[in-house]
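Input:
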Amino acid sequence: MQLGRTPQSIYLCQQLREQGICDEKVLDAIANIPRQLFVDEALAHQAWDNAALPIGQGQTLSQPYIVARMTELLMQANIKRVLEIGTGSGFQTAVLAQLFDEVYSVERIKVLQFQAKRRLKNLDLHNVFTKHGDGWLGWPTKAPFDAVIVTAAAALLPEQLVEQMRDGGLLVIPLGSEQQSLFKIERHGHSVTQTYIEPVRFVPLVNGELA
Ligand code: SAH
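Output:
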């Protein structure tokens, strides 16, 4: 399996540019990934639509626009080690792996974690480490991280994720339940600053038992 641009992926990136995504490194990282490998074969013909797609277990592969938007928020020179919560299909993980030195990703549904791990290995993305676990708890043994990205909506700001960021670190997270908004949160010592980005729609960051 190889990374590489295709006519469909180049067309999708053109649409993303029109929606305001302007970081060419992010667009390249998205264009390089064979998105059809991240969904069920029956949905492969829709893989290049700029839309969210089901990945089983009641979960969804995020819309390319939101993957691009969230990734763009992380593009700072001093960000090298990234924690992702909600691996899902592994598509966002594959984007991050091309842009940052090390990516750690936590997923609560075992079967999704297993499939994502296999896809990422098949694409030779060896700077990615996945774990079956509860994202509310982060990945304490690998902390501190330069940035954390959460791809499920949290009802409250997960304290442990803030603690696992280095000073000056960045957290990109959808907050809310019915009404959700994307926020960029920066940690400065013991205080945080929160910047509103835009309204979003994600599956919930689930509390409790692993599946
Ligand atoms: N970035 C993924 C989005 C998947 S949807 C993609 O593009 O495919 C969100 C994911 O978050 C789901 O797979 C869901 O199982 C996972 N999730 C929800 N609550 C979680 C938790 N507490 N810990 C870890 N993962 C969680």
